Amino acid sequence: MSTHRARKRFGQNFLHDPAVIARIVRVVAPQGGQHLVEIGPGQAAITQPLLASGCQVTAIEIDRDLASMLRQKFADERRFSLIEQDVLKVDLASLQPQPIRIVGNLPYNISTPVLFKVLACPNLTDAHVMLQREVVDRMVAKAGEPAYGRLSVMLAAVASSQRVIDVGPGAFKPAPKVQSAVARITPLPQPLDVGDSALFADMVRAAFAARRKTLSNALKAIASAAEISAADIDPGARAEVVSPAQYATLAKRVAARASPHA
Ligand code: SAM
Fold first, then answer.
1. CATH 3.40.630.10 is held by the domain 197-253
2. What topology is assigned to 8-187 in CATH?
3. Helix (H) or strand (E) holding 206
4. What are the tens digits of pLDDT across the range 122-131?
């Protein structure tokens, strides 16, 4: 497998540090009988120890050469199956059996769409994803913290996230220019009640698109200062101090005004 030349367009940075691989597998803690879906198995650095734990692995790999190597490598492994496709085109809800756990050292160039796809998965136990460390910081940030933004709010509405491992560039070949981290994402048993989810998403986008402005200014096309106050938010505050629950309250108020009989 060492003959494969890393392809930049597929964000290929292969893990080669056995200690880092072991830590990832330890935090995932796969159990026999579970169904793990691995996004971008590459040269099987994580796939192999996952399978050794007795779980079932469905691997989704876009690179034709890697897919063929994986097929050969695991030809006799009944608990392994491979989908040779772009993960963004795979219907994760149709993979059997459900529920699934997701693991992926993700290609950084498509990390945000992959994250939102993972979050939309209806029967997800949890996900462990390696990403650029700054992205993980944004995912886990709380209101008032410097990295808090749209991603933090949208994620907090549906899941809890933690940064579980920091990984330096030297763990990969080729070494990326950025620091990485593994995040654990666990869907909330009860997602935040945001009312109209499209309106909620638009509001959060607008608030952070003008994060230097006061909220009443940033949201003037969406909510009045009176509505912002009624949601227990200071209209003079900025987007970064408003909690996900406060955005949800405001979105529900605006939705109720927009459709008074709903
Ligand atoms: N898991 C391996 C490891 O840790 O060494 C490889 C990680 S590498 C950062 C990302 C992997 O995702 C590569 O194998 C790459 O070919 C694959 N990949 C890139 N884009 C993809 C896509 N859209 N769908 C599925 N796999 C993709």
1. no
2. Rossmann fold (3.40.50)
3. helix 197-209
4. 999 999 999 9
